[in-house]
Specification:
Elements: H1 2-42, E1 56-63, H2 65-68, E2 78-79, E3 89-92, E4 95-105, E5 111-116, H3 139-142, E6 145-147, E7 153-156, E8 159-162, E9 165-167, E10 172-175, E11 182-188
Parallel strand pairs: 2-3
Antiparallel strand pairs: 1-4, 1-11, 3-4, 4-5, 6-7, 7-8, 9-10, 10-11
Length: 189
C-alpha cells in the first residue's frame, strides 16, 4: 500500500508541476528583468550632492565633540555660520565643535588668511592636547585645497581625503570621524 501511495503522490505532484510550470517560467523572466533593471539603475554614475561649479572656500580644524566638552566650556557658542569669528566654536547637529584654526581661501584654493583660536600662549592646551604645529611663514605658499574631479575627495596640499559626511544646509563637509581628537571641516560655495 505504501508503494501505491508514493506512486500516486508522485503522479499528483507531476500533474501540479505541469500546470504550474508556465507560471514559474514567467516568474523567472520577471525576476530576471527586475534584477537587471535594478543593477543598471544602481550602477549609474554616483551623483554628488555638491554642485558641479562649487569650490572650497574655507577649512576648519576643530576639536571633536568629545574633546570640545573639555576646552572652552564658559565661552558662548551658537549654531554654525560660515566665517563667523564671533565665537571660537559652533554647534552642528547638536554637537559642539571648538575651533582651533580657520583658513579662509581665495577662489583658486590658496590661503587668504588664517585665524588661530588660542587657549593662552602655551603649546599645550589645558586638557593636555598639544597644539598643531603650523609654520606661519610658509602656510600661505603651501596651501592649495580643491575637490577631486568626481567630488568624492578633497585634495588638501598632498593629501587626498575621503569625504565622510556632507551638511548641505551649512555647506560643510566633514573629513574624518568624531572619534579623532580633531575633525576637519571644509566649507564650499
Amino acid at each position: 500500500m505504501s508503494i501505491y501511495f508514493i506512486f500516486m503522490s508522485n503522479n499528483y505532484f507531476t500533474s501540479i508541476l505541469t500546470r504550474v510550470k508556465p507560471f514559474l517560467n514567467d516568474m523567472k523572466k520577471t525576476i530576471t528583468i527586475t534584477v537587471l533593471i535594478s543593477l543598471v539603475f544602481f550602477n549609474c554614475k554616483h551623483q554628488s550632492p555638491i554642485p558641479e561649479n562649487s569650490r572650497i572656500d574655507g577649512k576648519y580644524i576643530v576639536f571633536s565633540p568629545r574633546i570640545s566638552k573639555t576646552t572652552l566650556d564658559s565661552i558662548k557658542i551658537e549654531n554654525f555660520k560660515f566665517e563667523s569669528n564671533k565665537y571660537p566654536g559652533f554647534i552642528l547637529n547638536e554637537k559642539r565643535y571648538d575651533i582651533e584654526y580657520f583658513f579662509k581661501l581665495f577662489n583658486n584654493g590658496h590661503l587668504d588668511y588664517m585665524t588661530e583660536y588660542k587657549d593662552g600662549d602655551s603649546y599645550v592646551y589645558k586638557n593636555g592636547i598639544k597644539k598643531l604645529p603650523i609654520n606661519n611663514e610658509t602656510i600661505g605658499i603651501t596651501t592649495l585645497i580643491h575637490f577631486s574631479s568626481n567630488r568624492e575627495y578633497i585634495i588638501d596640499k598632498l593629501d587626498t581625503l575621503k569625504i565622510e559626511k556632507i551638511f548641505p544646509k551649512q555647506k560643510l563637509i566633514l573629513v574624518g570621524n568624531d572619534d579623532d581628537v580633531r575633525n576637519y571641516f571644509y566649507h564650499y560655495q
